[in-house]
Every structure is written in structure tokens, then in C-alpha cells.
Amino acid sequence: MKLVQQVAIVTGATQGIGLACAQRLIAEGASVMLVDIKPEGEQAAAALGPQACFFTADVSQKADVDALLAATLARFGRIDILVNNAGITHAADFLDLSEDDFDRVIRINLKSMFLCGQAVAREMVKQRSGCIINMSSVNATLAIPNQVPYVVSKGGINQLTKVMALNLAPHGVRVNGIGPGTILTELAKQAVLSSPEARHTILSRTPLGRCGEPEEVAGIAAFLASADATYMTGQTIYVDGGRLALNYTVPVME
């Protein structure tokens, strides 16, 4: 186990990639504060055992983030790892997208990472150590026409990761990102795997010929949080089945 006596916060942790990250960090010995706006996180934390705790918060709101920080310190005494994972999508063509929907996605996907990252980093700087992991996407560089604010938010996350890493490096705090391709989560099923035709399109752009599993992303998070990655900061690792390297389509095995 590589994360014994470490304390982690994972946002957006009730399902999908966030839950898988919490499970993997606990398997590596960490104690984890699961965070979500959905109260069913209580059940998720209970299923993970005594190393897990749950806190209900809207991480796009500073007051909630401050309360989360206080609760984590009260429960565990320190913070070593932050997995900034909370995120949503909203499908609409550019000409039809409302200002409110644009703002909502940017607030939850991007502003939350600034708020959580800043709050946690202030504690990590005192410790002279820590690791922050921002969940980005291949859509930080690629784009889906009807996912305007999602794509914009992920591009912003990549730059936020870099500027955080540069600012915090002198204090011994590392900041990296993970850019998943299409992972088999409820979010992906709703956004880009909603029909056989959509699935065919995704797989035709994925050289490994399949979608990823949340556990495969969680493995990268555990690596970045561990001593194996102590000379890495400011990087985004793409867990995408080869999609970003591909300049054509591949046959799909039905």
C-alpha cells in the first residue's frame, strides 16, 4: 500500500470516476473524505468502511468549501491529497445555449477546482507537502459541438493545473491532471453513449477498441498521489485508449 497514513478529499465521489478514486485511495491505505452534493454519499462512504467519511457540499460555493475543509481537518487532522473531480455536462448548440447554463457548468466544473484547490493548498503549504489532482478530459483539446461549456471548462482546467503547479512548486505541493477519454460512467452514457450510433462513433475514434472503466482512471490518480510521481507536476495524463494520437477512424468490433 502506497498511501498509508495519507488523508484525501475526493469531490464528486458518489459514483463513477470519483467513487472509483475513493475506493482505490482507500485500498492504498489512505483515509478519504468523500464529497458530493448528493446525500446518498453517506451510503457510499459507509460501504467503504472506517477509512471513509462523507460530507455534503456544493463545491462551487466558497462557504461550502470552507466548511468541507474544516470538517476534514476536524476528522482527520491533515490533508495530503485532493482529487478535484466534481463535474457536469449540458448539451445545447452554441446558438441556443443560455447564459445561466453556461455559467452553471463553468461554476461547477472549473470554479470548484479553483476554490477547493486554493483552500486545500493553504493547508498543504503549511505541511510543505501535498498532491492535487484535477480531473480534466480529452475534451480539453478536442471538442464536441453541443457541449460548449463542458469543453470550455476542461480547457480551463488544463491551464489551471499548470498555473497552480507553478505557484505551489516552491512549497512542495504538486498539481497534476488526468484527462479521461470515454469512461463507462452514468455521465458518459447520458452525454456521448446515448445510442448505438453514438457508441459506434466513439469506438471508431478509440484505437484500443473499447471504452475505459472508472477503475482505470483511479489507478492513475493513485499513481499521481504516490511517491512514484514525486517529480511530476504541471502535467495532464490522458487515459483515452489512444484517442488523442489518432488521425483517422478504426474498425469497430460489434
UniProtKB/TrEMBL annotation:
PROSITE patterns hit by this protein: ADH_SHORT (PS00061), PROKAR_LIPOPROTEIN (PS51257)
InterPro entries named in the record: KR_dom (IPR057326), NAD(P)-bd_dom_sf (IPR036291), Sc_DH/Rdtase_CS (IPR020904), SDR_fam (IPR002347)
CDD domains the UniProt entry points to: SDR_c (cd05233)
Source species, domain of life: Bacteria
Residue span, Ketoreductase domain: 6-181
UniProt keyword Oxidoreductase present: yes
Keyword Oxidoreductase: yes
Cited SUPFAM superfamilies: NAD(P)-binding Rossmann-fold domains
Keywords: Oxidoreductase
Family according to the record: Belongs to the short-chain dehydrogenases/reductases (SDR) family.
Name recorded for this polypeptide: SDR family oxidoreductase
Native species: Janthinobacterium fluminis
